[in-house]
């Protein structure tokens, strides 16, 4: 019996080693052929099987990536916001089918008494999208000054309705900024305080937090792009005010901390199983949009599985987070040079290599 167990262990170890070597080939190819610069974490059952850092966190001072490097994660922030809302739902403090005005009566937008909390979670509030719809508005909203939150909402997020709430997907930061404001109204605390008390401190995510323009964040990565023609991907300008992304995109983290968050979600530490099931249920006619994630079936060769993903991007930084709940596999890719489109292709190559023949 002992010999059988040893044999099984050796076979399992050999398969795992072979899989990881194939993933490493993909990563090395991404570096050599496409100048990938960043971190890749692959975990099975919550156990890290590979954590690879490639390139420089800061090209000015030739600083390599390391476990200490903190990455801008931009819209991965939205999943933190979604979890905070779902915790309130579990505690009976928020009704996902209630309108914005129920918890934020001062809101002046036409969506106030028509769009629900769930509409905000699924980017289907029906608001005219003014905060990230054009380069000019991006510059006005995020690059000129640090906005007072109420002024930002009144200026950019109180538009007329152009669609019936719940009927059309329209990706935007504004819906999640409104969710952050609602969290503040219910808790009577800042979003940052709530984030720390409900998620970061309990999970001991010591390398994760909110970014502020005037803060000096130790070991934070710098953002770059190989495409000099795109003004929103070059080296992060000093007049970018990350504060304005707020509960939609102003966080930093590390691969290890993101794995902690991943496991706390999918192992029902932060949310009950029934709530997680709700979180991972895509809304009809809204492009596979669930609550804080996109969820859909996907195949990798002979492997078919449920694919749960979240992306983030801004000013030379990009982030990609994938969880396959049926396979208990987590993949986190963070970069300070490549865009989302590239990471979407890279993640498929990584997972295909891991599950390949």
What is the number of beta strands?
A: 11
Please give the share of residues in helix.
25-40%
Gross geometry: globular
Examine the coordinates and then state which fold CATH places here, giving the name of the CATH topology: Beta-lactamase
CATH architecture type: 3-Layer(aba) Sandwich
Describe the oligomeric state of these chains in a short phrase. single chain
Quote the average pLDDT: 91
Radius of gyration: 21 Å
Distance between the termini: 29 Å
**Share in β-strands:** 15-25%
Strand order of the largest sheet: 2-1-11-10-9-8
Assign the CATH superfamily. Answer: DD-peptidase/beta-lactamase superfamily
CATH class categorisation: Alpha Beta
- Weakly predicted, low-confidence segments: 4-14, 230-234
Describe the 3D structure.
With 357 residues, the protein is α+β, with helices and mostly antiparallel strands. It has a single domain (2-355), classed as DD-peptidase/beta-lactamase superfamily (Beta-lactamase). 38% of the residues lie in helices and 17% in strands. It contains twelve helices and eleven strands. It has helices spanning 2-34, 77-90, 100-103, 117-121, 135-143, 149-156, 174-187, 191-200, 246-249, 255-266, 273-279, 340-355, and strands spanning 38-44, 47-54, 56-58, 63-64, 71-72, 209-210, 251-253, 294-300, 303-314, 317-324, 329-335. The strands form three sheets. The chain has a six-stranded antiparallel sheet with strand order 2-1-11-10-9-8, with helices on both faces. Strands 5-7-6 form a three-stranded antiparallel sheet. A hairpin with a 4-residue loop joins strand 10 and strand 11 (329-335). Helix 1 (2-34) runs antiparallel to helix 12 and helix 2 (77-90) packs across helix 7 (174-187). 42% of the residues are buried. Residues 4-14 and 230-234 have low confidence and may be disordered.
